[in-house]
Amino acid sequence: MEQLGDLELLMEKSFRENVEPPAEQKVEASFSKTVLSRGVDNRYLVLAVNVVQNEEGNCEKHLIITASQLLDYKELCILRNNWCSVPVEPGDIIHLEGDCISHTWIIDEDFGYLILYPDMLISGTSIASSIRCMRRAILSETFRNSDPATRQMLIGTILHEVFQKAMSDSFDPEKLQELAFQTVQEIRHLKEMYRLNLNPDEVKQEVEEYLPSFSKWSGDFMNKCTSTDFPQMQLLLPSDGSNNNATCNIEVVKSLDIEESVWSPRFGLKGKIDVTVGVKIHRGCTTKYKIMPLELKTGKESNSIEHRSQLVLYTLLSQERRADPEAGLLLYLRTGQMYPVPAKHLDKRELLRLRNQMAFSLFHRINKSATGKEKTNLAPLPQIIDEQQTCKYCSQVGNCAVYSRAVEQQMDDNSVPVGMLPKIKEETQHLKHTHLEYFSLWCLMLTLESQSKDNKKNHQNIWLMPSSEMEQSGSCIGNLIRREHVKTVCDGQYLHNFQRKNGAIPITNLMAGDRIILSGEERTLFALSRGYVKEINMTTVTCLLDRNLSVLPESTLFRVDQEEKNCGIDTPLGNLSKLMKNTNTSQKLRDLIIDFREPQFISYLSSVLPHDAKDTVACILKGLNKPQRQAMKKVLLSKDYTLIVGMPGTGKTTTICTLVPAPEQVEKGGVSNITEAKLIVFLTSIFIKAGCNPLDIGIIAPYRQQLKIINDLLAHSSVGMVEVNTVDKYQGRDKSIILVSFVRSNKDGTPGELLKDWRRLNVAITRAKHKLILLGCVPSLYCYPPLEKLLYHLNSEKLISFLLLIFHQENMKVFVTYWVIFKEDKTLFLAFFHTSAVISIFYYL
DNA sequence: GCTCTGCTAAGAGGA
């Protein structure tokens, strides 16, 4: 009792000490628009932080907090034990888990959590990776594209997909073979194989080696007669208490979701759960049913702390949607071995502590001058660890060393472990002082830009503000009910129709094409899916979503929130990191960009232009004025870069153009032309963006392989629902817009039979009611007599447009933009040529 | 203060 009295006295004291100083009134929330609240989603503003010693001489942190906007109602939060190290400061926003008794929260070793900046959601994998090196975790969040994709990652991705498909289909060996084959053949995976110089057959073979383990796993854990037939495991749930027998039989009943994406503003976490499974835990004569996260791993069966931590974090994420799973399952697909991972309080506490440290580092990227007199500069990152082994294979080692030398070693209180100095030197020895300065400057500038007010995502409004309030800002529509069937456009794209439960849709800024986040009005259905607005009118919002919501009850109320545009500094930061690499290309770019080496030019055009391109180039130059022609010539002679400077409207963009060749590919499946296919998809998307109904657009190609490629591309774009067919299928029908891809493009003029058929061509070009776009390689198509006639006619009518592909380089990344001139006339022929001239341009502001 | 532009994203495995 006496102790308690002392404690109360202590509390009173700290209250008095901290409530009274006038300085406290100046405290402002670091997240300007944060909604302070109490209850499950509580958000407290920290007014004061006091470190005190308790009776036993242990350290405690006492926070004076408030959930009232007027700062008039204050509470106390006492942090004990390890929680004392949370880097919380006055002005911070925190979330508290636990009990609040007589205006006092006590967070200690065994009970309660503090979440620092809960609206900053950090991914499960990031936190897991911070266990070994916090600095690396922060660097990976910053320099996002520094991790090069590898063969193992591709195999891992493919295997995940095969397993997930099998989970909702079947683990029958023949079916698995089929699923594996399908998945390996998917365009995005083939692209990655091409990039990694891998053969699809060898990838398929490696994937197949895992399949027997898949079958073994499903045989072990699913569909048995009696509970004791399921594998025996050691698992105690926190709710089981300590004096229970840990041995149990685990049965996987069913899969409830795949790639479930969860944002948790309660724990400040986000992540994607590989598989969400219904599990029965049979222990003695009792059975517990739990819905748990199942995490798949294709690599070494390490059962490592990182892997297990990922599952512990996923049990926290799961609580956003349903009851606490208390445990997760970790499955190694190479062997089919599965480990249960209980989510103990100790593990959750330590992981959230790491999360708070990470949130602190991510939030405090800049040292702002307190008085306005000192220079604003970058804050140091978490300490470099002193473990050569860990750093040996770290993909962030380059960024780590450059940041240390360019930013941290310029500071007074910089401390690098002595053992790591040689490594840092080695990693940065190719860089001059000017390069380090450039890195430091741009890192600072980009970080400042990302922190500027209009670039901050205010996602927290979605979880903290009711839709009725958000609707007033025009970026939200609430009280929506799903109408009609969900149309599956393709895997991962589902068309949903929503209507307001009562009456018309309120006035809104939401427009077709906007990115949105779809949530249920209920808290547990928050951020269910993301996608685009496809169409919006007075009564209906049509959305293309990444999940099919028809599994939810029909009466579910939804809200649609506009996803705020995010200023991506990821690309420029990634480029900055690449610019510092020890490669010849980066060396050259540093020379030109940082050290301002003058660009070099060659003397004669004849040495760069292929002979047969002469006429083509002359033809283009005809359309340009004198300064444009001079600029064009300079560009063609450029070895490095050419700057074109001009007032707006003087025709810089017109000058920056080049012709791409688009060669055909002849394979077993038939003839195709990937460039044309991409362009068709691009043009289709332009028409849809311009307001055309996808159903009014038809795509025609004479070759099946081409149709397949176009279909695949459409399926992976936001377009979808556009009819793609051979000429014959359009016989007797018409569409508002028809796009034709002629496919053939080869120098030797091998004629294919298909295009010689005059009747087919006639059908193809007479299907369009309003706009006909023909796309093809002019010199190749001249080989076909019917097309020759057509081209001759189009040419005389000036209906042929040369297709311009614009390469432009911004933030050191090359973008390719198709530039198409739309004319008033109904018919337009977009033409390619065999030859190309590549132009590289840097835009400088 | 308005409007335009840039925009998937968490994790795929390694030791």
From TrEMBL:
Residues 74-278 form the DNA replication factor Dna2 N-terminal domain. It is found in: Mitochondrion; Nucleus. Its cofactor is [4Fe-4S] cluster. Residues 624-660 form the DNA2/NAM7 helicase helicase domain. It comes from Rousettus aegyptiacus. Residues 666-777 form the DNA2/NAM7 helicase-like C-terminal domain. It comes from the Eukaryota. This is DNA replication ATP-dependent helicase/nuclease DNA2. Belongs to the DNA2/NAM7 helicase family. InterPro entries: Cas4_exonuclease (IPR051827), DNA2/NAM7-like_C (IPR041679), DNA2/NAM7_AAA_11 (IPR041677), DNA2_Rift (IPR048459), DNA_replication_fac_Dna2_N (IPR014808), P-loop_NTPase (IPR027417), PDDEXK-like_dom_sf (IPR011604), SF1_C_Upf1 (IPR047187). Pfam families: AAA_11, AAA_12, Dna2, Dna2_Rift. GO terms for molecular function: 4 iron, 4 sulfur cluster binding; ATP binding; DNA binding; DNA helicase activity; endonuclease activity; hydrolase activity; metal ion binding. GO terms for biological process: DNA repair; DNA replication. It is an enzyme of class 3 (hydrolase). Its main location: mitochondrion. Residues 467-564 form the DNA2 rift barrel domain. It catalyses: ATP + H2O = ADP + phosphate + H(+). SUPFAM superfamilies: P-loop containing nucleoside triphosphate hydrolases. Keywords: 4Fe-4S, ATP-binding, DNA damage, DNA repair, DNA replication, DNA-binding, Endonuclease, Helicase, Hydrolase, Iron, Iron-sulfur, Metal-binding, Mitochondrion, Multifunctional enzyme, Nuclease, Nucleotide-binding, Nucleus. Its EC number is 3.6.4.12.
